Amino acid sequence: MKDSNCGYCMGGELLDAFGIKICDLNVSQLILFKEQSHPGRCIVAYKDHVSELVDLTEEERSAFFADVARAARAIHKAFSPDKINYGAYGDTGCHLHFHLVPKYREEFEWGGVFQMNPDKTYLGTAEYEDMIRRIKENL
Question: CA-based Rg of the chain, rounded to a whole angstrom?
Fold first, then answer.
């Protein structure tokens, strides 16, 4: 099932507004969040347009969390954060996804909840490509 107004479902300009698709995982897609105040921040979005974890079967939910863990391991290996925060939102978009937000002790927001979009750090094409390469090498 797809929603024509959803960036995770449709890709293209809707996704380009906030992210860059890195690759498909087992039951989801891995997306680099363009705002990189937390180096390595990504999103793992479920392959279908479902709203809630409870909308998945136990097998689907296990496969989704395996994708989240796989992405988190790659982020740990590529960027060596002190911690990754996980956020599951979707009040308006209603597409099941997790934000994986690397946190670093010497950076802003350590010890607090991450901002959804601090709108501070955007990178050039080559820098995004390098981050994507580093993540892919560690998947």
Answer: 14
Question: Do residues 88 and 44 touch, judged by C-beta distance below 8 A?
Answer: no
Q: What is the pLDDT along the chain (139 residues), one digit of tens a residue?
A: 788 889 999 999 999 999 999 999 999 999 999 999 999 999 999 999 999 999 999 999 999 999 999 999 999 999 999 999 999 987 777 899 999 999 999 887 888 777 777 878 999 999 999 999 999 999 9
**Domain 7-137 classification at class level:** alpha beta
Q: Where are the domains of the chain?
A: 7-137
How far apart (Å, rounded) are the C-alpha atoms in residues 25 and 46? 9
Residue 41 · residue 35 · CB < 8 Å: yes
Concatenated DSSP letters for 52-107?
Answer: -GGGS-HHHHHHHHHHHHHHHHHHHHHH--SEEEEE---TTT---EEEEEEE-TTS
DSSP assignment of 108-132: TTTTSPPPS--------HHHHHHHH
